[in-house]
What we know:
320 residues, alpha/beta, globular
Amino acid sequence: MAAVCAPRMCFARSEYGARALQPLDTSPKLAQDSEIGAKAQVTPLPSPIVHEPRGPLPVLLSVPHSGRDYPDWLIDDAAAGRPALALLEDPLVDRLVWRALKRGCGAVIARTPRAAIDCNRAEDDIDPSVVDGARGGRVTARARGGLGIVPSRTQQHGYLWRRPITPLQLVDRLDQAHRPYHGAIDEQIGLLLDRFGCALLIDCHSMPPPPGATPPIVFGDCLGRTADAWVSREAAEIARSCGFEAALNDPFAGGHVIDRHGCAERNVHAIQLEVDRRFYLDEALREPGPGFDRVAAFIETLAAELGEALLRRQFATAAE
């Protein structure tokens, strides 16, 4: 997640190219396995929940890693069952944003589990060990570490799946969950631009208890590429005013969501937010803890104050 974001143009794009799956194995065995897999994968993955902005703020929240709608076929394919897959979640971050939603901010929230398809990865960020026939092309550090667009393994449970998925199954997952997620973000940002002339995207995540002196809040802006510098500085100041120490781009610089949708030149600023799970969950790091509402209030304050600051700058520019 902390890899340096590569340079890119300021528009959303489909990155799933032929290079990601070429050359494909077209052996009779793979064709037979593809047919079996297609029959087994019956229940489609759920599309995201979309809350349209309805208040005075040009803010959209993204929550890509809190999906908990596990279809039976996904659990059946898991070597260690659902508990192993659940470790990939950012627990309850979808509920942490409730105050910001009540304030009128928009949101796109994944219902599909990260284990099935990771909406914070590019379409070609593929681990060849998890997609049968995917050979050649680049393999990113994230994919090599087991956290590509379809996660392959975790430190606790090792390899997650009984068998690789087929290229056709990968395309199905992209069509059912990943592309609708990013399409919804594109649409909501467009609505904000039409209404306000600017937009702020906050991509919300949580992190396991980090080692060393990492603060509880980490913002990422792809090393300054997805938001103007003042946005990230202001975000850190807001965190401190709410009683949280904050870092920028270390150890997480930002993932695919902000890399794809952030474009300061278009007045679309995107930052990633990571919250230490100990600050909002219980000791087991699965259920709400005593700090849950404090973190929810912080996210509301972050969205409100950054959104208002962006509007002030937008109006000042328009008045010049």
